[in-house]
What does this fold into?
Amino acid sequence: MTGAAVVLIPFARPWDIRWEAFSVSVAPAADGRRLPVLVAYLWMVLIATVVAYILGVHAVRRLSAAVGATVASLEVVGGALVAWGLVGETLSGFQIVGGLILLSGALLAQTATRSASRRPVVAAS
It folds into this structure.
């Protein structure tokens, strides 16, 4: 993550951020309640990054390598579906095909792992 941050800093250009934007309040909900931008930002960092990363690391420890890799690859497809359902994000044809390839690979990995674990172990004589 640190390496990615170092590589992306020139593209993100944090020095161009208007820092006064963090001192204003916005109304993200339809009920009109106002929330300071800084609070929303910290909430996003804490929940969407820190807690998600910690929970993901602990979950992968409890899974086999094949299941962990499958779950990690399905995260991208799940994120795309959530973005489509919640905010109306549209997917291009290439993205849909890529998602289908990913789902096919995950299914193939799971069936191969399942059938490999069913084979009896033959002891060498």
Observations:
- The two ends are 49 Å apart (CA to CA).
- The CA atoms of residues 45 and 51 lie 9 Å apart.
- The chain has four helices and two strands.
